[in-house]
Amino acid sequence: MATSARPFWTYWAASTTSGVGTAVTTVALPLAAVTVLDAGSVETGLLAASSYLAWVVLGLPAGAIVHRLPLRATQVAADLVRAAVILAVPLVWWLGELRLVHLVLAALAVNVAEVFFFTANTTFLPTVVPKHELTSRNSLVSGTQAATQLGGPSVAGLLVQAVGAVPALLVDAASYVVSALLLRRLPERREPALGEGEARPGMGMIAEGWRFVVRHPVMAPATWWACVVNLVCGVQAGLFALYLVRDLDAPPAMVGVLLAADGVGSLLAATATPWLVRRFGSARVLLLDGLVGFAGALLIPLGAGAAGWLCFAVGTMVFGASVVPGSVVTRTYRQVASPPELLSRVMATVRFVSWSMIPLGSLAAGVLAAHVGNRAVLLGSAFVLLLGPVIVGLSPVRRLRNLEDYDARLVETPLAG
Predict the structure, then answer these.
(1) Residue 71 is inside which H or E element, if any?
(2) 297-316 tens-digit pLDDT
(3) Which residues contact 120 (CB under 8 A, 6 or more apart)?
(4) CB 315 within 8 Å of CB 299
(5) By the 8 A CB rule, do 8 and 134 touch?
(6) CA dihedral defined by 135, 140, 143, 148, rounded to 10 degrees?
(7) What angle do CA 285, 288, 289 make, to 5 degrees?
(8) Segment 7-59, tens digit of pLDDT
(9) Among 36, 106, 306, 348, whose Cα sits 20 to 30 Å from the Cα of 55?
């Protein structure tokens, strides 16, 4: 345990450091568009979509590419690229040349690096954590991400209020440098090599990961569930900053505080997830997540003034709490149920499919909001979440207590005969 604990905590520290910076940028970048460049709903939707668009283009090949690369070095390189790109935005601003296209290109470039970082990072975790600890460690990582979502936006709001939206981005650039330095202390890891005679071209490797996911009776519906949730997350990412500033008249500091409510819910849920899994089972947790998320999302766009701020905060907190348990149990299941040589491709495939919904949601939200308003689009998106429980309920998951029970039944069936 002593040998495995130290690499995990270094891994955790790196993820936490970069997460704080990313949380700052999540607030500062759209506020820069709204307050510095006077962007509207279409522009903020485009900016939000750019922050996830690389998953559509690179999500599938990333798994096959990372399979051939050293995992630690890939993460370090991605961190340094993200630091350089974020640093370029304040430099262009100080030169008086900042335009929306610079923010969009920066968001897109950071997302490209993030695709490779995430694929390597999630593949790396099972190499430093024993299998029986994956649920608790994934919960801790999710809880820490929730804590950064709690503290980061509040800090970002205060930073934006004090120094402006663009200079606040320097915090994110510094966080990526620190993360890279921490990751360099970890041992290098690679995925298990393909066996002799098993070498395949890149498209063959991509197709193998794709087939494994979409044909899996449990992994596939869990992926479609994630698609529904991420579509709504895309709507929110595209409209939240604009809705708070233009519809609810919230100043930047209050925008940060209100967005931090998501972190409160996520942190509480991440802390409770191991207990929820033990008490009810991971399959049942996944089934109920969508209903809780619907209730939270429905509350978000209600009210005006101070009442609107309260509805937004409570609704965002409940919605954030609904996302984490399902994300933890499905990610853990993929790490446990995937063959080791397929893991990076499985993780990349799921992220490609589900995160492709985020830019789609952001772009659609921006266009629709220009015609019917931010509030109406946010309200309508809540009802989309009801598709999640329907998809999972129509799959074999409804008969399971834990997702892993499906694999156990497959093992037991031949013996029973």
Answers:
(1) helix 71-94
(2) 999 999 888 899 999 999 99
(3) 66, 69, 71, 72, 74, 75, 78, 344
(4) yes
(5) no
(6) -140
(7) 85
(8) 778 888 888 887 777 777 877 888 888 888 888 888 888 888 888 888 778 87
(9) 36
